[in-house]
């Protein structure tokens, strides 16, 4: 087994062989999840705690379902009503959790680096479900699995990531993963929504959608992160849609078999036209949701495998 990570905190520290290991196992879980009986005992007797300091629908539900299908005891902590709101520090929360002896801790937090801090303080595997603008590794992995299944490969593809790059942890994780797997990545969007250090990413940057989408294999749209914007990043949603919303005319510049992706939730008529989002011949947005459960199942199984080998004193 190539997978060696004790935590899944980001894509940055995963090698291409580890990514491939995880995606191969996730493929098997896609098949399991399509059966009448969707249950495994891989995590039987283990405890999974989900801590979401930010609201989430898809990610939290996906992690909960993944844990339960693997046989884990899953607990969702209501962080909005937790002791954190009463002034408890993140480290105190970690120590409290540690005393409960969980095996898997899934964390989403609004501050970049918070999940890494927790991982240093607990004696269990930690999975990053999104931290600030830093990373969202399982989203990038489920996107990768979706692309691989749709295109038959995950290398030497032209991928356009479009929209609010600056505020998107999804974009950062995808940039890292797609780069590790030898793909050519373009970033498309207004200059106000590009990271300040964009030159360090080694990608092509376009402000014009039609130029940016020319002959690409994958069009990955991003949500406008309005909750992270503290100024006038766009003139208006109407103007944004006119210039950067994906419609049939702009998509016509991509390859005829290009797939369309979006991490959700979608703002229809702002980031993407509804007819494109629902086009079963081009859109793989629903497939992304399905792949999310399988990828999270695979990630949790691999982390538990590594932990068990480490505990048994086997070199990994």
How is this fold's topology laid out?
Elements: H1 16-33, E1 47-52, H2 58-69, E2 73-77, H3 90-98, E3 104-109, H4 114-121, E4 125-131, H5 137-151, E5 158-162, H6 169-180, E6 184-188, E7 204-206, H7 209-212, E8 218-221, H8 237-244, H9 248-251, E9 259-261, H10 274-277, H11 285-311
Parallel strand pairs: 1-2, 1-3, 3-4, 5-6, 5-8, 6-7, 8-9
Helix pairs in contact: 1-5, 1-11, 2-11, 3-4, 5-6, 5-11
Description:
This protein has 316 residues and is an alpha/beta fold. Helices cover 38% and strands 14% of the residues. It has 11 helices and 9 strands. The strands form 2 sheets. A 5-stranded parallel β-sheet has the order 7-6-5-8-9. A 4-stranded parallel β-sheet has the order 2-1-3-4, sandwiched between helices. Helix 6 links the parallel strand 5 and strand 6. Helix 1 (16-33) packs across helix 5 (137-151). It is globular and about 55 Å long. The termini are close together. The mean pLDDT is 91.
| Rg from alpha-carbon coordinates | 19 Å
Helix content: 25-40%
Low-confidence stretches: none
Assess the beta-strand content as a share of residues: 5-15%
Relevant terms:
single chain, about 325 residues, alpha/beta, five-stranded parallel β-sheet, four-stranded parallel β-sheet, about 15% strand
């Amino acid at each position: 087994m190539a997978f060696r990570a004790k935590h899944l905190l980001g894509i940055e520290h995963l090698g291409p062989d580890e990514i491939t290991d995880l995606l191969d196992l996730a493929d098997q879980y896609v098949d399991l999840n399509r059966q009448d009986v969707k249950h495994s005992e891989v995590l039987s007797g283990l405890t999974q705690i989900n801590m979401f300091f930010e609201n989430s629908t898809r990610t939290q539900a996906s992690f909960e379902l993944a844990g339960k299908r693997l046989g884990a005891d899953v607990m969702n902590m209501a962080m909005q009503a937790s002791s954190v709101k009463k002034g408890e520090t993140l480290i105190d929360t970690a120590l409290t959790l540690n005393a409960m002896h969980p095996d898997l801790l899934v964390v989403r937090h609004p501050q970049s680096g918070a999940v890494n801090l927790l991982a240093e303080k607990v004696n269990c595997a930690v999975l990053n479900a999104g931290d600030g603008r830093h990373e969202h590794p399982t989203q990038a992995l489920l996107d990768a699995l979706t692309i691989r299944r749709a295109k038959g490969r995950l290398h030497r593809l032209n991928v356009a990531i479009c929209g609010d790059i600056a505020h998107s942890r999804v974009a950062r994780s995808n940039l890292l993963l797609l780069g590790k797997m030898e793909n050519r990545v373009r970033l498309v969007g207004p200059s106000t929504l590009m990271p300040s250090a964009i030159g360090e990413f080694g990608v092509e940057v376009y402000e014009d959608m039609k130029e940016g989408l020319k002959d690409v294999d994958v069009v990955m749209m991003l949500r406008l992160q309005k909750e992270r914007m503290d100024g006038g990043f766009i003139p208006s949603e109407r103007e944004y849609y006119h210039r950067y919303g994906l419609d049939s005319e702009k998509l016509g510049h991509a390859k005829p078999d290009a797939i369309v992706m979006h991490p959700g939730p979608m703002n229809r008529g702002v980031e993407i036209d509804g007819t494109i989002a629902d086009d079963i011949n081009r859109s793989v947005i629903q497939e992304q949701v399905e792949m999310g459960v399988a990828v999270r199942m695979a990630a949790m199984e691999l982390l538990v495998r590594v932990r068990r080998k480490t505990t048994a004193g086997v070199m990994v």
